[in-house]
Design a protein that fits this description.
With 67 residues, this protein is mainly α.
C-alpha cells in the first residue's frame, strides 16, 4: 500500500476544502449564521479525511509490525 500517495491525495482534497472555506468566509453577502451553516459540512469532511489518514497510518504500521 502506497501510504504517501494516499496521504498526498487526501491532503489535496483537504486543500480544496480549505479554499472553499476561504471563499465562504470572504463572501460578505452571507451573515454569520449562513456562513456557519455552509462551513459545517466542510469542517466535518475535513475531520473525516484526517481521521481516515490516521486510520490508514495505523493499519499500515500494524501490518508492518506483523510482517
Amino acid at each position: 500500500m502506497d501510504i504517501k500517495l494516499i496521504e498526498s491525495k487526501l491532503n489535496e482534497i483537504i486543500a480544496e476544502l480549505e479554499k472553499e472555506v476561504i471563499e465562504i468566509v470572504a463572501d460578505e453577502s452571507l451573515d454569520k449564521q449562513e456562513t456557519n451553516i455552509r462551513m459545517k459540512p466542510l469542517a466535518s469532511t475535513k475531520k473525516i479525511l484526517n481521521n481516515a489518514i490516521d486510520s490508514i497510518r495505523m493499519v499500515d504500521k500494524l501490518s508492518r509490525e506483523d510482517s
